Amino acid sequence: MTRGSLRARMMLLSALVTLVALGLAGWTMAGVLDRVVTGGVDQRLDSQLAVLASAVRRDGSVDRDRLAARQGALAAGPGWRWRIEGPRETLGSADFPTLRPPFPGPAEAVRAAGPPTPLDGEDAKGRIHARRLVVESSAGTVTLTAAAPGRVIGRPIRDALVPLASVIVLLAAIFAAAAWVQLRFALQPLAALVSQIGAIRRGERAAVDEAQPAELQPLATELNALAAANAATLAAARQSAANLAHALKTPVATLALTVAPDTPEAAQVRRIEGVIRHTLARARAAAVNRRASTAIAPVARDVGAVLGTLYPATAMRLEIAADARIAIDAHDLAEILGNLLDNAARHARSRVVVSSAAEAPDHITLTIDDDGPGIPADHREQVLQPGVRLDEGPAGDGFGLAIVRDLVALYGGTMALEGSPLGGLRVRLTCPDGTTA
């Protein structure tokens, strides 16, 4: 049995209870059957004792003629025996076995006159069941005994127990099937709750259904409270990181552009920028929603629509599957695409293409291609450094690609710059697939 399996434990408990109950039922029925069969045999033996008693005279002698006339009532078949032990003579079966009470008591209790008493014994063929009657005569007590072979009791019981055992086995199978079906339906709400918790982890829902059975409803309420508390904490941390980023990005970028490169001032600015980026990275890493699952196409369409108004001469084409999902929070994905598409549209001659593909297990690749001048291979790593720009235009501060690379890395993804088939730059993002998050 699996230690943590409720289903296995409940099935085992149900099986044990069923076996014990059916065992007790079988034992009880066998006992009742034994008493019924034995009672029928006792009635027949008592009838034989009555026949024997009718042949005993008042003086204790035996009326042989009367006994012979009723001999047919005593001849019940092989193994049936009778005996009359009187003060003057003893008559009956020659091979009469030694008999004893089933519950031995004082000897005088056996010899005392009264109703018939049971006796047990054995012969070469097995058990003997008998009844004894003691009658009084003027000459003394006369003991009458009638005995039956044990098979007349054992055989009917065995014949009845075989189908009874088959019925018990069948009942056990029915009860086992019923327990399995009952557990399957009883545990369905728990399985559904587990599925909903998994959906929360993947970012597909914010809470579990609280319409649960009475036993699970408190658990569902507590889970929703926990999810809400985590979401509030995450939102507060993300907002703090965003506020700090917006507060520092522009002053640092402005300061970096006002100092000449390769000067002590520039070195100090880079040092300040490095400390800020390290602190922001730690803050943002703590705030990243690693359970996020976001559909790519809607976010890309929204970002593309905004940039389309800023760069009307550049055509943006989206080649993204409708069911493509990425394990990045929607707000962070919008920031990533905003930086990359703004950079691509600003340098493109006429078009930008955004596409997605599942090229590796559990990962999705997102590419942004433009037909601009591109970046030489030996300068691509350089432009990923904060504040570094290759063009002299007024737009941009040189931090966009660096921010995107750090943000993608926080979600376990990678970013690479390559040559584009369109002739310009290709930005390739490889991130965890949101459908398996």
Quick structural overview:
By secondary structure, the chain is of the alpha+beta class. The protein has helices at residues 6-54, 64-69, 71-74, 107-111, 151-186, 188-201, 217-258, 264-287, 296-310, 330-347, 380-383, 400-410; strands at residues 81-85, 90-92, 99-100, 117-123, 126-137, 140-149, 294-295, 315-319, 325-326, 351-360, 363-370, 414-419, 425-432.
Q: Tell me the radius of gyration.
A: 49 Å
The residue ranges in which pLDDT falls below 50 over 5 or more consecutive positions are: 392-398
Oligomer: single chain
What is the share of helical residues? Answer: 40-55%
Strand order of the largest sheet: 2-1-6-5-4-3
Q: Kindly report the average pLDDT value.
A: 80
Strand content: 15-25%
Distance between the termini: 31 Å
Q: What is the string of helix and strand elements? A: HHHEEEHEEEHHHHEHEEHEEHHEE
Please identify the structural class as seen in this structure. alpha+beta
Shape: rod-shaped
Please count the beta strands (DSSP E, at least 2 residues each).
13
Largest sheet: 6 strands, antiparallel
Enumerate how many helices there are, as a single number.
Answer: 12
